[in-house]
Design a protein that fits this description.
binds pyridoxal-5'-phosphate, 2 domains, 10-stranded mixed β-sheet, Rossmann fold, 822 residues
């Protein structure tokens, strides 16, 4: 790692302030200082970036293109400083100039180009790829407005546009030299040249895709990879020629297309909305990414058949799946290959990651829309489907059920998951349980026909952001005890296990937790105006708001606890702070109502003096990567309470574990593997198993009314949803939530997420949490064991598995001399 000179860095900041803003350092605003510091950091990064790209070219190394509609990056400045090994120098330089690094970092907007877990996974993967030295590009979209900012007004979520580009983003680099045309609509003309057909798209509209590159800095290795996000620009801005030809209308339409295309990120997590603009976004960034990838390949390779030796496209969910047809199109129509050659290459270049089995999340585009927007691509999908169905019929003669279930195009729709599976050479799930459900239930037919494609890659998270950056006190303490190898080799944390029974280490560990709880309490005081007791149990559920994640189970249990306290104010109880953070998709009514319920319950409980502050409920506004870092560090209890079988993996669960929180969860997603690592006795597991849930589902659900009729405590809580207990002005306010649990007209459709079914088991697990917390030594030991056992959940491990089983990349090395030689 190269040394960064403090003095040079100071000079660089001062120069930047002067050149950019014509100000001296003491006249500059905090935002201007942030910009100046970021440009100074970017200056350092650029040399490594160039040297890395030189290594790519010289070695001709194979690259992975990670195709994703979402990259939930979080702030870059702090992370880049750490990965450059410049924290000490920068911190001191800033202090000498009279600034606090944390305050400067707080000036950066969170680039929130993603919804939740899927987008954050992509960001963690980029960090790991760079740190491990693998050649990689992230390919995505430069949304002008990322994930909306959430305001809470009168307890309701209000969505506010996220203007992250307002002040200019210092870490991006516009690359007009790679601008590429992307075409939509029109029709396909077939031209016979005496030897073969040529397919030409005519009457189309097009936009110019312009890439912006962001550096992805590896930790301490001089490697800088690239996240390339595409912006759209009109191709023919009212050029006179278009005007003269009477194409005024078309010029206006193209201008509008470019304007709308990359305007906003769709705020749905795990939900398919079927919007035309969304399909346009998908094709836009895929076509641009693939065109440039092929062009780059051809600069140094003369045989297109060797493409699979140099390039792999990893599709993050089905959102980028149009890539397989676009690659076919480029190979057939541009490179002039025949079908079999093109198919041979495509099926060696594309791999697919499945993120969900939930029906409402599966992408199925109406043929009408798909073929109108992408006429040539649709022809190719039809041909892929035709050939695939012949294979199905050969394997299963006279079995129309198989055709129905497996067809790519069926019933007027294009099924993107089927296309991804058929054209990809790898299909991976994201946790062991999830992959087993894929193989044995959801994708059983495909698994039986092509078992060799299926594999598991349990998700991971980067410890550089979620421990080293987010929890510096714990990071430093760990390094003091066992050295710093854990930063690039997380399983080293297991060395902490020898200390878990030592009271001195237990106390130090829990004291750091306490300091982090103070830090979060301060944030809560500033943002919510609520005083929370840092000695209370910090019981946290932060994640997207979704029925399957069951924030409702959590808040119903809070209501139940509050009832107990009201009945018995002297009840002996460890004080508890229930912390929530969650954005709901803007159109997801029941989810938004759940946010209102949490805030209404919080209002009543937090203002009830009679319970002596034993219970507090906090809803943290605008949950995002930057406040997530504070929250994980301060958590005692990690709520991972999804309906078993619904959460493919979860990654929040891993961040909590790494920071020494104990999991309260169902046997779902990666919780299963967390418990495998830390031991069931150091977590609190409850509820139906995935098999039990699936069994109920296959047999028409269960009857929640039985529980309502027989369990007084549950009935009381449910009645409080409709008797105005938490909404005196509008007793009907939470009727829809009540109905979702107990729709008396159709009990099979009631409580489809098994909230009442799991309630008693959850309440009992919560009692175990409380009992365990009373034993300080036990809790400290278990918390330390959680951190010490988190080694498996580094995204470094996940990436090494992708490389070994799917991508087959070689590491590159960028020496200090390579950088100096520039
Ligand atoms: C990790 C993370 C998520 C995913 O959380 P889950 O609990 O796995 O759903 C979502 N949002 C942010 C900001 C995250 O950091």
């Amino acid at each position: 790692m190269r040394e960064i000179s403090k003095e040079e860095f100071k000079k660089s900041i001062i120069e930047n302030v002067k050149n950019q803003y014509r100000r001296t350092i003491d006249e500059a605003t905090p935002q201007q200082i942030f910009q100046a510091v970021s440009y100074a950091i970017k200056d350092v990064i650029i040399d490594d970036w160039i040297a890395t790209q030189k290594q790519f070219d010289e070695t001709g190394a194979k690259k992975v293109y990670y195709l994703s509609m979402e990259f939930l990056m979080g702030r870059a400045l702090g992370n880049n400083i750490i990965n450059l090994g410049a924290k000490k120098a920068v911190k001191e330089a800033l202090e000498e100039l009279g600034f606090d690094l944390n305050a400067i970092e707080d000036q950066e907007p969170d680039p929130a180009l993603g919804n939740g877990g899927l987008g954050r996974l992509a960001a963690c993967f980029l960090d790991s790829l760079a740190t491990l030295g693998y050649p990689a590009y992230g390919c995505g979209i430069r949304y002008h407005y990322g994930m909306f900012k959430q305001k809470i007004q009168d307890g309701y979520q209000v969505e506010v546009p996220d203007e992250w580009l307002k002040n200019g983003y210092p870490f991006e680099l516009r690359r007009p030299e790679y601008a590429t045309e992307v075409k939509f609509g029109g029709y396909v003309k077939t031209e016979w040249d005496g030897e073969r057909n040529h397919f030409v798209q005519e009457g189309y509209q097009s936009v110019l895709a312009v890439p912006y590159d962001m550096p992805i800095v590896g930790y301490g290795n001089n490697v800088v990879n690239t996240l390339r996000i595409w912006d759209a620009q009109p191709i023919d801005t009212f050029s006179l020629s278009a005007f003269d030809k009477g194409d005024y209308q078309k010029a206006v339409e193209q201008e509008n297309l470019a304007k709308n295309l990359v305007e906003v990120l769709y705020p749905n997590d795990n939900h398919y909305a079927g919007k035309e603009l969304r399909l346009k976004q998908q094709y836009f960034f895929i076509s641009a990414s693939l065109q440039v990838a092929l062009k780059k390949f051809k600069e140094t390779n003369d045989d297109i058949h060797k493409l699979p030796e140099k390039i792999v496209f990893q599709m993050n969910d089905t959102h980028p799946t149009v890539a397989v047809a676009e690659l076919m199109r480029l190979l057939l129509d541009q490179e002039g290959l025949n079908w079999d050659e093109a198919w041979g290459i495509t099926t060696k270049c594309c791999a697919y990651t499945n993120h969900t089995i939930m029906a409402e999340a599966l992408e199925k585009w109406p043929i009408e829309l798909f073929s109108r927007l992408l006429p040539r691509v649709y022809q190719i999908v039809e041909e892929i489907n035709r050939r695939f169905l012949i294979e199905v019929q050969n394997k299963y003669p006279n079995n129309y059920e198989k055709v129905k279930k497996m067809a790519i195009i069926f019933d007027g729709q294009v099924k993107m998951a089927h296309l991804a599976i058929v054209a990809g050479y790898s299909v991976n799930g994201v946790a062991k349980l999830h992959t087993e459900i894929l193989k044995n239930q959801e994708l059983k037919d495909f698994y039986e026909m092509m078992p060799e494609k299926f594999n598991n890659k349990t998700n991971g998270i980067t410890q550089r952001r979620f421990l080293l950056h987010g929890n510096p006190l714990l990071a430093d303490w760990i390094t003091e005890q066992i050295g710093d190898e854990w930063i690039t080799d997380l399983p080293h944390l297991a060395k902490l296990k020898v200390y878990v029974d030592d009271p001195k280490f237990q106390q130090e560990f829990m004291n750091i937790k306490y300091q982090n709880k103070l830090r979060l309490a301060k944030y809560i005081k500033e943002h919510n105006g609520i005083d929370v007791d840092p000695r209370s149990i910090f019981d946290v559920q932060v994640k997207r708001l979704h029925e399957y994640k069951r924030q409702l189970l959590n808040i119903l249990h809070v209501m139940y606890l509050y009832n107990q306290l009201k009945d018995n104010p002297n009840m002996d109880m460890v004080p508890r702070t229930f912390i929530f953070g969650a954005k709901a998709a803007a159109g997801y009514q029941i989810a938004k109502k759940t946010i209102k319920l949490i805030n209404s319950v919080a209002d009543v409980i937090n203002n009830d003096k009679s319970i002596n502050g034993k219970l507090k409920v906090v809803f943290i506004e605008d949950y995002r990567v930057s406040n997530a870092e504070l929250i994980f560090a301060a958590a005692d209890v990690s709520e991972q309470i999804s309906t078993a079988s619904k959460e493919a993996s979860g990654t929040g669960n891993m961040k909590f574990m790494l920071n020494g929180a104990l999991t309260l969860g169902t046997m779902d997603g990666a919780n299963v593997e967390i418990v495998e690592e830390v031991g069931k006795e150091n977590a609190f597991i409850f509820g139906l198993s995935a098999d039990e849930v699936i069994n109920y589902e296959n047999n028409g659900g269960y009857n929640p009314e039985e529980i309502f009729n027989t369990d007084q405590d549950i009935r009381r809580v449910l009645m409080q949803l409709i008797n105005g207990y938490y909404s005196p002005q509008d007793p009907e306010l939470f009727r829809d939530i009540y109905n979702s649990l107990l729709n008396t007209k159709n009990s099979a459709k009631a409580d489809t997420y098994f909230i009442l079914k799991d309630f008693r088991s959850y309440a009992e697990a919560q009692r175990r949490v409380e009992a365990a917390y009373r034993d300080e030594n036990w809790w400290a030991r278990a918390a330390m064991l959680n951190t010490a056992s988190a080694g498996k959940f580094s995204s470094d491990r996940t990436i090494e598995e992708y490389v070994r089983d799917i991508w087959h990349l070689e590491k590159i090395h960028v020496d200090d001399d390579d950088v100096k030689a520039l």
